[in-house]
Amino acid sequence: MGAGNHGATMGPRGAALLVLLAPATLWLLPWPWLWPWLLPALGLPWLLRRLPEALARRFPGWLRWLPEDLAFVGHILYVNLVCKGSFPSFVDMLEARARARPDRLLVVDAASGRQVSLGEMDRRSCQVARAMGAALHGAVGLKEGDVAALFFLGPRGISALTLCFGLGKLGCQVAWISPHIRGPPLLHAVCSAGSCVLVADPELQEAVETILPELTAKGVRCFYLSSTSPTKGVEPLQDLIEAASSDPVPRQIRAGVTSKSAALYIYTSGTTGFPKPVIYNHNRIFLTSLTLRTCRVFQNDVVYTALPLYHAAALMVCIMGSLELGCTCILAPKFSASRLWDDCRKYQVTVIQYIGEVLRYLCNTPERSCDRDHQVRLAIGNGLRQEVWKEFLQRFGPIRIYEVYGSTEGNIGFINYIGRIGAIGKTSPLLKLLTPFELIQFDMETEKPIRDKKGRCIPVGPGETGLLVGRITSLSPFLGYRGSAEQTEKKLLRDVLRPGDVYFNSGDLLSIDVDGFLYFQDRIGDTFRWKGENVATREVEGVLSSVDFLEEVNVYGVPVPGCEGKIGMAAVRLKPGKAFDGQKLYGFIQKALPAYAAPHFIRIRDSLEITGSFKLTKSRLVAEGFDLSAIPEPLYMLDRKSGTFQPLTPDMHRAILDGSIRL
Fold first, then answer.
1. How many CB atoms are closer than 10 A to CB 621?
2. Which of 73, 224, 392, 446 is deepest in the core (most CB within 10 A)?
3. pLDDT tens per residue across span 197-216
4. Considering the entire predicted model, what is its pTM?
């Protein structure tokens, strides 16, 4: 098999034989558990391994990967047919699982060791419902359709989950707000979801007090999850919950809740304005929770996540996914590269979740003799760079990696079920029938899709970069944002391939190869244009990360007076004990990057800011550009004459601005 085909049942060399057998075996699609035994028996692996690579390469990509594609589509159909419609709401799912296995651990706090079983979570959430429900004569008076905002730090994750399930028992909708936002963005987050209640971590007192007058004026009732309150106008809630009965809450309380009812609001990152509340109905929660099952996670697995619960990956995939499967989720209050493997050994973790740079942070820790001493067999996530993927497997062992693509509000997703290193997913003609999408030509200058004479968008070819758009159908709906029809409309593209069709604009630039593997290129806004060429920041970051004295790299484009487009700049963090070597970096860039993609400015930083989902932040860096008055750290400029990066001086800065130095 090819080097990238890790963990697949059968590689491309089996395609020739199996395509002949495929029509006779289509009836097996609903029973994918047969495939791991059936395919090897039919395919004669000992013979297929000896087929020349050239034979397999003579078949088109869709045919070459037909066995794996059929097996995956069969698994998808099986999962959805068996599980679809099982529960009208995520609360009904909790209640059913609690009745069946009340003693089964649902979630464990990795920091404190606190363990909560399905039965205890159900009982505690009943107390929350009785304390906060008007129909149950509680203190707050929430009812079906009301919205409550949760504002919690990571260490209080289990408490926040209990509140979420309890509010769900009342038929209330829950807005999960990042604990990192403050001031106007925080006020906007609470109000844009239509919240009538804010329940906050007492550790976030200062943030709450800053916006309390505005919340009070808007009629939003505020609580701390504590026994006392140091803030006038904010009530304590803990004792009310403790005093409430844990008797089951009647289903009639939320009689109007269906699978299509809004349930949760998860916010966008806010990189293009204030965070927007993305609507999750119960059906979408349930379908997202099936990600673990789709990635071959089983009931006896133990899942580990260190991502924040206000992020869909942790809440929907890990927590709701563990609930759907009946397995246990280990919840770390925050990510710690030095502690993750110790936690995995302690709790016998078999599945870990990653996102963004998490696995790179693990690779950057000092090597230990126990690096492979663990039971982790799967890693599920997104944003894994190709070079980190290889390093991670070499160091920590043959862990099956499921790279998954998706966005908070998107209607399209992919899974790299083959395991090809570097790909964010795999598609096929069969999958495209279920979830239709296109990669279309995009103009980086106008930031709009390119259309032909008939006004239709133009699909890109294999290997070309295009904007990912997903067609909106009954099977792939786009629910949009709460209370913002204008923002929702901005994410739609109409008349894409034919009159009247509607697609979701992902804002992501991808490419696809002839075999159907998809590769992430960049995000619109991160990609910039210089010297008439498009520069993908992610690609440049990947190249620079191999420089031996650079620990972290964040690439972005900055405007230069009198020049079209933006020029490349990189904020970097040096490896401990290493010094910046401008001459060495210049020589490396000359060999590894085209001239238009080379960063012309290097900014040395002690640390690089990341979001709560471990993505590098660029907006403030872009705004500061190469302005010496705004940058206290060392700043270097590429100098082709001397063949090095030399310190940027005030005289050089003025010369760039007045055009004396041309870049």
1. 21
2. 224
3. 999 999 999 999 999 999 99
4. 0.79
